[in-house]
Amino acid sequence: MGKRTYGKEYGFQTRAVHTGNDVDGETGAIKRPITVGNSYELPYDPSDLNWSSAGKSLYTRNGGSNQKYLQEKLASLENGEDCVVLASGVAALSGLFFALLKSGDHVIFSSVTYIAVYRLFNELLNNKFNIETTIVDTTDPGNVKKAIKPNTKLIHIETPGNPTLMISDIAEIAKIAHKNNALLSVDNTFASPFNQRPIDIGADFVIESLTKYINGHGDALGGAIIGKTEYLDIIRQQSQINLGGIISPFNAWLIMRGSVTLPLRMRQHNQNAQQVAEYLEKLDCVRFVAYPGLASHKGHAAAKKQMVPGFGGVLSFGLKADHDTHNRFVSYLKVITSAVSLGHDESLIVFLGENDERQYLYPEEFHGGFFRFSVGIEDIEDIIGDIEQALEKTGLL
Ligand SMILES: *Cc1c(COP(=O)(O)O)cnc(C)c1O
């Protein structure tokens, strides 16, 4: 790494701008280039090379330069020792689980997680690989303690949880994990490292879907695992090299570029989501609002402890209205787009109907159908104005 590497002595914003970037040695350009060539020149005698090595420049699936630059930045922003970037957030999650777990191990995971985590633990890893799994309401660390078994290897939590925004206390759950020789992984996608740094408060691993806030522009997929090299080397071998979950150089470059403005965007997301949540909470036609920044949120105290500058850009809410009125409301929106994903520059909303198979794991108020709303960085007057005019058209305002 060259002279312009920025270490921990610099602030978060300085590292978001500079870490992982350097002057290009060949052209003198002040931004490193995208390297799309997928193969590298071999030494005079290649016969004793290990073709599965992640250490040498050999072939892009063994490690690409744009991937490595991004890994350097993300390890720094999360205050972790090392990072592996893969093709998507789900590749990062499965990469961690496959690296750590073997048949006979037990896993505890949050009752509200990204759907693929539920599939992996509730269908694939348990049925196919004989891994014991327990779904726990981790909003109460006492429930985690009760679920521990002698073979518990991993506790995986998502906080805030997608889509209910439930909050789990990272520091408390880390203590329980470590007292029982288990490891703790935290899906930090909703908060991003700007708002929450789980490794600082005891987590062993952080997962980020880079697709969301870290890229922030809705134009690339990627995922990262941050943690200790001794574990991450296993993920490089398995999920990157032998299972093929490598990120493309172009996506790594896009995410590197997007991540430069993460602190600026997050400040605006935090501020806009707080204002939208407060606005919605005052309306008679709103059935409930779930946002960790509201004093009325069940997890507000825990969130205040571990989400320092703010509470992120995602909230959920429901209307005092039937199924079709929820859909009509969305159809009247002009600024806010109906689409999945979150953490983009633009506001995105998705209606999650009443027949979600995991509904039984959600709090009561979520049973009537609800919206997950990823509040963008547009002018707050335009976001609230859009909601207002759409509610008026439904006849609810
Ligand atoms: C989107 C998301 C993921 C999955 O990320 P992909 O990049 O879509 O694979 C994982 N966890 C959370 C909390 C997410 O929101």
Overview of this protein structure:
The chain is α/β, with parallel strands linked by helices and 397 residues long. It folds into 2 domains: 12-259, Aspartate Aminotransferase, domain 2, CATH 3.40.640.10; 262-394, Aspartate Aminotransferase, domain 1 (Alpha-Beta Complex). The protein contains 13 helices and 12 strands. The strands form 2 sheets. The chain has a 7-stranded mixed β-sheet with strand order 1-7-6-5-4-2-3, with helices on both faces. α4 links the parallel β2 (106-110) and β3 (132-136). It is globular, with a radius of gyration of 22 Å. The model has no long low-confidence stretch (mean pLDDT 96). The structure holds pyridoxal-5'-phosphate. The site of pyridoxal-5'-phosphate has 14 residues, from α3.
Q: How is the secondary structure organized here?
A:
Blueprint (H helix, E strand, L loop, with lengths): L11 H7 L46 H13 L4 E5 L2 H12 L5 E5 L4 H15 L2 E5 L4 H7 L4 E7 L11 H10 L3 E5 L4 H4 L9 E5 L13 E5 L1 H14 L6 H11 L2 H20 L4 E5 L9 H7 L7 E6 L3 H10 L4 E2 L9 E5 L17 E5 L5 H15 L3
Parallel strand pairs: 2-3, 2-4, 4-5, 5-6, 10-11
Antiparallel strand pairs: 1-7, 6-7, 8-9, 9-12, 11-12
Pyridoxal-5'-phosphate binds next to helix 3.
